[in-house]
Specification:
The chain is α/β, with parallel strands linked by helices. Helices cover 35% and strands 18% of the residues. The protein has 2 domains: 118 residues, HAD superfamily/HAD-like (Rossmann fold, 3-Layer(aba) Sandwich); 108 residues, 3-Layer(aba) Sandwich (Rossmann fold).
Length: 266
């Protein structure tokens, strides 16, 4: 497979989990793209770190990347909220996430009188906060914004935990309001990344450990897809339930194996 640009997932693809230990061959993969002059973007649904914090973590793990190469769901959400004309937001997530939206100019409040409920990863979620979000959507008509809908994530102790999608599903089920999806696999999110690297979809390879969300979404808009077994899913058979047209083009144990195994040419 010969491609002209790359969109790379982070957790489960470049680093093992929230501990940000590099996966074998991942640092070298990035290094080998540089002499070839091939553009890349890290496509991340991370809702707990600012771009600066994320870049610092990746730097400590050995990755040489620039701020411009990080394409986050936070950036896409800010763009969407401004287009809506939203000014007041209820944020389900970490204090750092709330601060990011405040820094972007939104009034972040803990009342139900808001224009939008923005859902990120909230590991301290309480029933009271969940009730507040449901009330804002059902009674006040706030837009329900899902930064992503990932099912699970692997925490810093290697444990499987419910991700943003589980929280979004609870609010959507209770209010009967379908959320607006911002991060992967939203077509708008992917197209923004493609615009950044100025390449058509058919020239780009997406590499991820999530065949259900990231890679199926990539295939739907015409990108190539590589599934790595270094993250949430360790068995090749997990793709059996995915429609054939949305299955990955190649499967590898790790991102490094994509080069050493000859699946792609630089």
């Amino acid at each position: 497979m010969q491609v002209k640009g790359f969109l790379l997932d982070v957790e489960g693809t470049l680093v093992a989990d929230k501990r940000y230990q590099p996966i074998e061959g991942a640092v070298e993969f990035i290094r080998r793209l540089r002499p070839a002059g091939l553009p890349l973007r890290l496509i991340t649904n991370n809702t707990t770190d600012s771009k600066a914090s994320l870049l610092a973590k990746l730097g400590r793990a050995g990755f040489d990347l620039t701020m411009d190469e990080l394409h986050t769901c936070i950036r896409a959400a800010v763009t969407h909220l401004r287009a809506l004309g939203a000014t007041r937001c209820l944020i389900l997530g970490t204090g750092a996430l709330a601060e990011m939206f405040a820094d972007a100019g939104f009034a972040v409040t803990d009342t139900g009188e808001v224009d939008a409920v923005v859902v990120g990863l909230d590991t301290d979620l309480t029933f009271g906060r969940l009730r507040l979000a449901c009330d804002a959507v059902a009674r006040s008509g706030a837009s329900l914004i899902a930064l992503h809908r990932n099912r699970v994530f692997i925490d810093d102790r290697g444990r499987y935990a419910p991700s943003v999608g589980a929280i979004v599903e609870a609010i959507s089920y209770a209010t009967q309001v379908e959320p607006t999806l911002i991060g992967k696999p939203s077509p708008a999110y992917y197209r923004q990344a493609l615009d950044d690297i100025a390449l058509p979809a058919q020239s780009v390879l997406v590499v991820s450990d999530d065949p259900f969300s990231d890679l199926a979404g990539a295939k739907r808009i015409g990108m190539h897809a590589a599934f790595v077994l270094s993250g949430k899913y360790r068995e090749r058979s997990v793709i059996d339930s995915i429609p054939e047209s949305q299955r990955p083009d190649v499967i590898a144990e790790t991102i490094g194996e994509l080069l050493t195994g000859g699946a792609i040419e630089l």
